[in-house]
Write a structure and sequence with these properties.
313 residues; globular; alpha/beta; seven-stranded mixed beta sheet; 2 domains; Spore Coat Polysaccharide Biosynthesis Protein SpsA, Chain A
Length: 313
C-alpha cells in the first residue's frame, strides 16, 4: 500500500514560548511541519525555523481562518495527501496525530476531528466556562449539519487533501472557522467523524479577549454559518420563537388583567408585530433555501460545461 504524505500545519500567533516543542514533537509523526505565523510580534517565526519547521509569515494578523487557508494552499501545491492542524499553544498532544490520520488512510472518512467530549479524560482540565461555551457553540453548529457534532471548536483536525478545494471557499477569518469548515465539508458530502483526545489547559491563557466576548463573537459567527447553510432551520427557529413570544404576550396579558379585560393597545401591537415577524422569518427561510438550490444547480451546470470544454481540448 502506498504511503500517504502527511503535513502537520500549525497556525500560530505569538507562540514563541511553546512553538518549538510543538514542532519538534509533531515532526516525529509527519513528513513535514508547516508553521503559519499570523503576524506575530514576538519571535515565533524564528523559533519555529530553528526547530525545523517550514514557515510562512503573514505581514499582519489576518486571523486563524486566513492562516488555515494559507496552509491548505501550501499543502495543495506541495503534493501532500493529508494535512493535520494542531494548535501552537501546547494544549494538544502530537502523539495523537496517528490516531487522527489512520481513519483517513484506511478510506473510512475524509476528515477527523479531535473531540474532547469523546475521551474519558478529555474534559478533566477544561475550565467549566469553556465546557459550557463549547456545548453551546457545538449545539448551534450541529443545526447546520446533517449529524450532531460534539466538539465543533476543536482545532485538532486531519483533512484528506481531496476536501481542500471545497473548504477553501471559506470566507471566515476568525476563530469560528472550525464551524464553517465542517459545515462546508458536510454540505459537500465529505465523510467526517470525531475521535477522542485529551487537551492540556494548565498555564494556558493566550486569549487577548474576555472569555464571554470571545464566546459571543464565535456564537454569532456560528449562527451566520447556520443562516447560510441551513436557512430554513435558522429562520424557522426565529419564526417559532416569535410565535411563542406572541402567545406569551396574550397569556401574560390575560393573567395580569384577570381575564376580565381585553389586551391593551400596546399589547395588541406587540402581539401583531411578533406574529408578522414570525411569518416574515419563515418566508425568508423558504426564499433563501430556493436561492441556494438554484445557485448550486447553476454552478454545477457551469462546472460541467467547463469540464466538457476542457476534455474536448
Amino acid at each position: 500500500m502506498m504511503m500517504n504524505k502527511v503535513l502537520v500545519a500549525i497556525p500560530a500567533l505569538n507562540e514563541k514560548r511553546t512553538i518549538a516543542s510543538v514542532v519538534l514533537l509533531s515532526k516525529e509523526y509527519a513528513d513535514s511541519v508547516l508553521v503559519v505565523d499570523d503576524g506575530s510580534t514576538d519571535n515565533t517565526a524564528l523559533v519555529a525555523k530553528l526547530a525545523g519547521a517550514q514557515v510562512i509569515s503573514h505581514d499582519c494578523n489576518r486571523g486563524k481562518g486566513a492562516a488555515i487557508i494559507t496552509a491548505f494552499k501550501w499543502a495543495d501545491r506541495s503534493g501532500y495527501d493529508i494535512i493535520v492542524f494542531i494548535d501552537g499553544d501546547g494544549q494538544h498532544n502530537p502523539s495523537m496525530i496517528p490516531k487522527l490520520v489512520r481513519p483517513i488512510e484506511r478510506g473510512e472518512v475524509d476528515i477527523t476531528i479531535g473531540s474532547r467530549w469523546h475521551h474519558d479524560e478529555g474534559l478533566e482540565e477544561m475550565p467549566f466556562h469553556r465546557v459550557f461555551g463549547n456545548w453551546i457553540l457545538s449545539t448551534a453548529t450541529s443545526l447546520s449539519l446533517n449529524k450532531i457534532i460534539k466538539d465543533s471548536q476543536s482545532g485538532y483536525r486531519a483533512y484528506s487533501m481531496k476536501t481542500v478545494t471545497s473548504l477553501m471557499e471559506s470566507m471566515e477569518t476568525g476563530f469560528s472557522v472550525e464551524s464553517e469548515l465542517i459545515a462546508l465539508a458536510d454540505r459537500a458530502g465529505f465523510r467526517w467523524k470525531e475521535i477522542g483526545i485529551k487537551s492540556t489547559y494548565s498555564e494556558l491563557d493566550t486569549s487577548t479577549q474576555p472569555s464571554w466576548y470571545h464566546g459571543l463573537s464565535v456564537l454569532a459567527r456560528a449562527m451566520r454559518v447556520l443562516r447560510i447553510h441551513k436557512p430554513v432551520r435558522f429562520f424557522g427557529a426565529l419564526s417559532f420563537l416569535s410565535t411563542i413570544g406572541a402567545l406569551l404576550v396574550v397569556l401574560l396579558g390575560r393573567l395580569f388583567l384577570g381575564g376580565e379585560e381585553n389586551l391593551s393597545l400596546i399589547g395588541l401591537y406587540i402581539f401583531a408585530s411578533l406574529l408578522i415577524m414570525g411569518g416574515f422569518f419563515m418566508f425568508s427561510g423558504i426564499i433563501l433555501l430556493g436561492m441556494n438550490q438554484v445557485s448550486e444547480r447553476v454552478i454545477k451546470i457551469l462546472l460541467d460545461m467547463a469540464n466538457k470544454k476542457k476534455n474536448k481540448l
